[in-house]
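Sequence in, structure out. Go.
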Amino acid sequence: MSDFLLRTFVFVVLPLLLAALTVALDKSARSHERRIEVFLVYMFALGAAAGISNWAGHIFASDQVAEAIGWAAGSPFQLEMGFANLSYGILAIVAMSRRDGFREATVIGAAVMSVGATVVHFWDIIATGNLAPGNTLQNVINLARPALLIGLLMASRRAERLPGSEVASLAFARWQGTIVAVAGPIATLVGIGIGVGLAMGQPLLGTLTGLVIGAAFGVFHRSRILRSETVAARQSSSA
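Output:
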């Protein structure tokens, strides 16, 4: 059960905490549009981590995953589920830096998969009385994450239509790139960390390791981007 509580925290609560911390510390993220974008990027980022970790779990710890759900182990369908989850993880990574309909397509696909999985779990509970954590607690993640993504995406689109919106500007695109530079490594390494940690029986350690390394790399990468932009601006002004 503790593994699923960890997953609920990592994939639902952690992105909101990281986004709130970013808004609090980054003075350039204080406008309404940018605040929404920060939360949306981190929800996509940790959604990507969920896809990557589910892939790792279904591929490298398939028996443990089956046991947690209360289903029979050894089914090759777990391999297919692993790569299905990986596909949505990759889509979420791409969606972080996109502003077009690609985001809607990614959210719709992920929501259909998550809600569909929840329906299957509820049906299994009714039919068999299977109350294993993977058949019950997992549904919190399955429903909360797409609900948050849909709400944030709708808020983002409304903000775009407001008079004087900066979303289409080059300055917004450059700023967005600095946010993705941090969120991307966190997503990838947290996803790998929790998946590998689950396979090794240490999901919390794997998650923390991925978070620390991903955040450190992301902050370093963002600082390099900002430094190069500062140098380019100085050269342009002196030319």
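Check: The first helix runs from residue 2 to 25. The chain has nine helices and no strands.
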